[in-house]
Structures are given as structure tokens and as C-alpha cells.
Amino acid sequence: MENLIKYVPFDIAFSELTDLADKNNFNNTETIKWIIVKVLRLRRDQFDNIIQIDEPSLDNMKKALLRHIKGETLSKIFGFIEFYGNFFNVTENVFDPRLSTEALVDAVLEWHTCSNQNCKIIDLCTGSGCIAITISKHTNSVVDGVDISPFALDTAKENNLKIGAQANFFQMDLNSNWSKTLKTKYDAIVSNPPYWNSAKILANTEIVKSNPVIGFDGGEDGLHYIKRIIDMAPQHLNQNGMLFLEIEPDQEQTIRKLLSNHFEDIKTYLDYRKITRVISARLK
């Protein structure tokens, strides 16, 4: 007689996973939820409908969780990453899309809904293209995306084709003269730039080693690229143009001061952990 697959009630299975995480000093519940739905081949919005988990799947969840705790990225473990309901290909040449970055997209879409216009938008440091592609899909707009890495741009173009968005991708170094590359002005500049400082990079080597270090390195104070974007953005925004930046929570006050010279209506937005993650401002 064949062995029947045994099932574990969801609350018990979830407790086993969180206990395993606690024993390994890992406290990101959202990542655990992501692992659960991916092993079960569900969407994240189906998480609340799970009643039970079969034991083989639970075992695979534990193995995936331990691999992630030891430093492997979710994309390496599963071969893809989900962002805003779409599945993005990622490689060793791009920074893994993070759940916290969905707050950046939320902020842009909230503004776009209120603006009620077909806007010209550009995504700086586009990487896998997840931000530009997602905004394009949800606004039915053409969105430009730029990155210094040609390998990242190849991945972004592949994702754009796969997901069916209207994004254009081209190469640009933020430290260069933007006017040589950008031949138009935009209604919104959006960016998740590198914003970790040197100390944080050194303190998180397990995380950093699984992604291109260029995706983290914001210089000694973490603000090199943010300062560059704030300095250059006024020249490339239309009247009342918007700037949206993903940031570290402890950078907020410094960035507010940097923005105040040329921007107004400065607002912040929380990510899924209720942490300040995005700042926006309107050109004066």
C-alpha cells in the first residue's frame, strides 16, 4: 500500500518555520511568507488562504529558509524573484528586487493616479528593470530605465519582453554629464540608488556577497548617488516635476535638507515593515 502524504495544519507549519528562523537569528517574517507561497507555487496574495502544508513541501521550505539565512538570494534558490505580482529573471549582474522597493512603486502610482496625465518617467539605476517595467504596466506609459551596467540592461530588456511592458532601456553613468544621454525632460525621476555606507556594507558581507556590490555602495556616507540625483534632477524635470527616491530611514533628515533648495512638498512613505523607505518631492 502506498504511503499517503501527510499534511500539517498551517499554523503549526508556520510556527515551525518561524522557530527555525528565530534559532538562526533571522526575523524577516515577510521573507518566510514569500518562501511558503513560492514552494507551493502560489501568488503572495494567496497566502491567507493556505489551510495546510504537505510535509515534503514543509521540508523544502525549511531547506530554502536555511539556504537564505546562510546568504543565498531567493532568486538563486528559486531561479526567479517576484515583484509586484510579476516574476522577474535575475542574474549575478543585477541587484535582487526587494519587497521594500514595492513602496517606491506605490508612491509613484499614487502620484500618477492623482496627476491624471500621460507622464514621462525615468528610472535611474534600473537593474533588473523591475521598477520601470512595473510602473509601465500599471500606467500604460512608456518608461525609460538607465543603468551603468550593460549586463543589467540585457536582463532588464529580457524582463520587459517577457512581461510585456513599454519600457526603454539604455546605458548611463550617473557620475557623467546627464545631458549627453538624456535628450528630453521628465515629469518624474524615480530611483532606488545604492545607499548603504561603507560601514553597513562591511557589517553585512553575507548579504552583499550574493548581489553586485555596486548595488549597495553609496560611498562613505551612503549618500553619494542620492546627492548626485538631487543635484542633477532639476535640470531634467519639467515644471512641477517629481522626484522619488528609496532611502535608508536614518538618512531622511539629511535628504530633506538636500532637497529643500530646489524641491518642496516633501513626503515620506513606509514600506511593508512600516519603516520609512521612500521620499518624494516636487520641483519648485
State the domain count: 2
List the uncertain runs.
none
Q: Mean of residue pLDDT? A: 89
| Residues in helix, % | 25-40%
Separation of the first and last Cα atoms? 75 Å
Major β-sheet strand ordering:
7-6-5-8-9-11-10
Q: Main sheet, how many strands, which sense, barrel?
A: 7 strands, mixed
Which class of secondary structure composition applies to the elements?
A: alpha/beta
Number of helices: 11
What does the model show?
Strands 7-6-5-8-9-11-10 form a 7-stranded mixed β-sheet, sandwiched between helices. Strands 1-2 form a two-stranded antiparallel sheet. A two-stranded antiparallel sheet has the order 3-4. It is built from 11 helices and 11 strands. Helix content is 39%, strand content 20%. By secondary structure, the chain is an alpha/beta fold.
Provide a quick synopsis of the model.
By secondary structure, the protein is α/β, with parallel strands linked by helices.
Summarize the SSE layout with pairings.
Layout: E1 7-9, H1 10-23, H2 29-39, E2 52-54, H3 55-69, H4 74-78, E3 81-83, E4 86-88, H5 102-115, E5 121-124, H6 130-139, E6 143-147, H7 150-163, E7 167-171, E8 186-191, H8 198-203, H9 205-208, H10 224-232, E9 237-246, H11 252-259, E10 263-270, E11 276-283
Parallel strand pairs: 5-6, 5-8, 6-7, 8-9
Antiparallel strand pairs: 1-2, 3-4, 9-11, 10-11
